[in-house]
Design goal:
552 residues; alpha/beta; Rossmann fold; 36% helix; ATP binding; DNA 3'-5' helicase; ATP-dep_DNA_Helicase; Helicase_ATP-bd
């Protein structure tokens, strides 16, 4: 027995004592292969899952490192069957390999003949395979490269894809260090190198850490036509501005494929929304994927990838694919599809590591609990179950609380973020602040964001359209009044709006206003799990305690 911060249990759960002096080191050591499940005040619960172990294996971690991390930080002896299971599970990755055969094209090669025999008899995998070349090799239909990886993952034999990639149409792209004084940060360079070495996969970096620059670095390595998929038009135009400022690309080389424009150029930036729009029951715009011989496809905010794009990506396996995200958490549980179709996690930097280097701002996270009035409480208690969350999260009792928070941070550029439009409209009127929501035209959004960046608008009220890929570097306060139920990735993205380093070196303040004794509080606890995994601790305060001296 040692005094380690970790208790490793035979059911594959890990209990981390948060207040232990080695807790941060232990958290970083287990992060590559364990997923946070619960994060109350003193003990966090992680779980070791096969997908997490396979992601770790694909990222270059071996079983010995995983075992060493558990043994080093565990307070008690680690259950021997668990260690054996970890070694066995990680050994399943790559026992089947997709390769390019000089005569037969795409083939599946087995390093373990029994495994090949097993999958040859699987009813759903069988139709994807062609003739058997020898005892260890079978032909795979080229069109099934993505789908067979999905199926092999589901049956517990994740294949390592070594079949290579087409170069695509060559197009000169270089990083431009001369026209503006900048350079790739070490972790950005390492992320781009890790992606390029693997050929496809996902880079996980905190919001504000410069994921766009990783994309630009990957483009400079590929030197080929590139398709960039983004969440919305505003995000796409930010990509365009960054690429024009940081690379050799010119205006004429970058096209926008959105609801407003349909330009296909050597570098084309398209929105998920347009690509997945149906016309007469068909996804007409998916033909964009075939419109050029793309050498690289970049998926921004890959955790939001819509199902139709997954299906199309299954046919893009011969092209290099880079997924960028702040969190691999998907609320629909399709992390396995990201692993199979975009690629495994190639690089992951803990948020607190990047913060300690000064590249993102430190953040103070506060949950402010409000007590509903008797009338609101009764309305909540008697409401239909499906109406309760909206009722408690949009309670008018929150209005003065939001106002008092903003008063405490007078003159600080602030965002008020919510999910319900009628609540946002009411807040906008109450605070005399402009509201940006889904129906706000792109031109108006950009004008308001620009005015906010220049300091002309101190407070913006925004819906979930501002959750992703919006660059508001000076925003230092965010007040969250409602969210998409218990969405962990939304919480991470909202905090991310504040994490660009501040010119004065100050910290960010993230408030979540929550109605106590309701679903609002329950969902808030769930939303905070991902950030807890990254080392952010929420302070809980009562709304009545907020009225204090104004912060200058």
């Amino acid at each position: 027995m040692t005094d380690g911060p970790l208790i490793v249990q035979s059911d594959k759960t890990l209990l981390l004592e948060v207040d232990h002096e080695s807790a941060d080191a232990a958290r970083q050591a287990i992060a590559p292969f364990a997923e946070l499940e619960r994060a109350p005040e003193h003990v966090h619960t992680y779980r070791v899952t096969p997908l997490a172990l396979w992601n770790a294996r694909a990222a270059g971690h071996d079983a010995e490192q995983v075992v060493d991390a558990l043994v080093s930080f565990s307070r008690y002896a680690v259950p021997q069957p668990l260690l054996v299971d970890i070694v066995d599970t990680m050994a399943r990755y790559g026992r089947l390999q997709l390769m390019k055969h000089p005569a037969h094209g795409l083939v599946l090669v087995s390093l373990d003949r029994a495994v090949l025999e097993e999958i040859l008899r699987h009813k759903k995998i069988q139709p994807m395979l062609g003739a058997r070349i020898d005892d260890d090799t079978v032909i795979v239909h080229p069109s099934e490269r993505g789908r067979i990886k999905q199926m092999l993952l589901k049956v517990g034999w994740p294949a390592e894809d070594l079949a290579g990639y087409v170069d695509g149409e060559a197009h000169q792209i270089d990083l431009d260090y001369e026209s503006s004084d900048w350079h790739l940060r070490d972790y950005q360079e390492l992320a781009a190198d890790s992606f390029w070495a693997g050929g496809s996969g996902v880079v996980v970096l905190p919001c504000g850490a410069g994921k766009t620059m990783v994309g630009a670095a990957a483009m400079a390595k590929a030197k080929a036509t590139t398709l960039i998929l983004v969440t919305n038009t505003v995000a796409g135009r930010q990509w365009r501005r960054e690429l024009l400022a940081r690379t050799s690309l010119t205006e004429d080389e970058i096209g926008e494929y959105s609801g407003e424009r349909k330009e296909i150029r050597p570098v084309t930036i398209a929105t998920y929304q347009v690509i997945t729009r149906k016309t007469k029951g068909e996804y007409r715009h998916l033909e964009l994927f075939d419109s050029r011989d793309w050498g690289l496809v970049i998926y921004d905010e890959v955790h939001l990838l819509p199902a139709p794009v997954f299906r199309m990506t299954a046919d893009l396996q011969s092209r290099r694919r880079l997924g960028l995200t702040a969190t691999l958490v998907r609320e629909d549980g399709r992390e396995g599809d990201v692993f199979s179709l975009i690629g495994p996690k190639r690089y992951d930097a803990p948020w607190k590591d990047i913060e300690s280097q000064g590249w993102i701002a430190p953040a103070d996270c506060v949950e402010v609990r409000v007590t509903l009035t008797d009338a609101e409480r009764m309305a909540y208690a008697t409401a239909e179950p499906e109406e309760r969350y909206k009722l408690c999260s949009t309670a008018r009792t929150k209005l003065p609380v939001v106002e008092s928070i903003l008063a405490k941070h007078k003159d600080a550029p602030s965002l008020v973020i919510g999910a319900y439009l009628d609540q946002l409209d009411e807040l906008g009127e109450h605070l005399n602040a402009p509201v940006i929501q889904g129906s706000t035209r792109t031109k108006e959004r950009e004008e308001l964001f620009d005015a906010f960046r220049r300091g002309e608008i101190p407070v913006l009220v925004v819906s979930k359209v501002a959750n992703f890929s919006i660059d508001l570097p000076e925003a230092s306060v965010a007040v969250q009044v409602s969210g998409t139920f218990g969405s962990r990735q939304e919480e991470a993205q909202r905090l991310g709006r504040l994490l660009r380093p501040k010119h004065d070196g100050g910290q960010a303040h993230f408030y979540s206003v929550v109605a106590r004794d309701t679903l609002d509080a329950e969902y808030a606890a769930h939303r905070q799990r991902f950030l807890a995994e990254q080392g952010y601790a929420y302070r809980i305060t009562d709304a009545d305690d907020l009225l204090g001296p104004t912060i200058g």
